[in-house]
Amino acid sequence: MTKLLKKEFILFTHPTSWMFLAFGAMMLIPGYPMYVPLFWTTLGLFYACLSARENNDLYYTLLLPVRKRDAVRARGLYFALMELLQIAACVPFAILRTVLKIGPNNAGMDVNLALFGLGLGLMGLFNLLFLPKLYKNPAAIGKPFLVVTVWVFVYILAAEVCCFTVPFFRDVLDTPDPQFLGVKLGVLALGAAAFVLMTVLGVRKAEKIFEKVDL
Fold first, then answer.
1. DSSP characters for 87-105?
2. String of DSSP letters for 183-211
3. What pLDDT shows up at residue 214?
4. Which stretches in the chain have pLDDT values below 50?
5. CA 96 to CA 202: how far, in whole Å?
6. Domain boundary assignment for the chain
7. Can you give the pLDDT at residue 26?
8. CA end-to-end distance (rounded Å), the chain
């Protein structure tokens, strides 16, 4: 698995994935939906899948002495690591935003621990929905990504609307750190757990689907 993961980072990664990590700086933009910097990671993964299809990456992988399920697991792990890298890239700018006293985010969720918890949930949802669709028909990537992106933005819209309409979000979660720190840490932990669970479920479903695909 280590060698397969190394192959993913060397041969599968698209240059835009590294470029999009710099978009963590968008955390400094006043009045901006803070889930958008996290969305760019999924776009980088999509470009990587497109590039891999054109370069017959999947056929090359299966010529190696590996099982189909191992190929799926390596890709699922790669997805998760790139998403966590995006989170990590956003953290310094989130801290800098506090240091610069940019103030509350009037466009939706403020930059705080709860945001990252909900962001992890967003990325977990992407993995749960996209990985099975990716391996159902590896040649068709655009339409599945478009469908999954619709659900991703439904999630973002719902989370942002809650900041204005749901008292728990508005008065507790959508506040600067360290206010309500215990609750926000709980949301972060739940988001991390949801990220792991949904990613694992997405990988397992993709494994079952890909085992039946005749390349």
1. HHHHHHHHHHHHHTT----
2. HHHHHHHHHHHHHHHHHHHHHHHHHHHHH
3. 67
4. none
5. 34
6. 2-211
7. 92
8. 22
In this structure, how many other beta carbons lie within 10 angstroms of the beta carbon of residue 34?
Answer: 26
The pLDDT score that the predictor gives to residue 1 is 78
Q: Is the dihedral of CA 8, 11, 16, 21 positive or negative?
A: positive
- At a CB cut-off of 8 Å and minimum separation 6, what does 193 contact? none
H runs (alpha helix) in the chain? 2-7, 15-21, 36-54, 57-63, 68-99, 113-136, 142-165, 167-168, 181-211
pLDDT at residue 198, as a whole number = 97
- The per-residue DSSP string of 53-68 comes to HHTTHHHHHHHSS--H
Backbone angles phi, psi at 169, to 5 degrees: -70, -50
Evaluate if pTM is beyond 0.90: yes
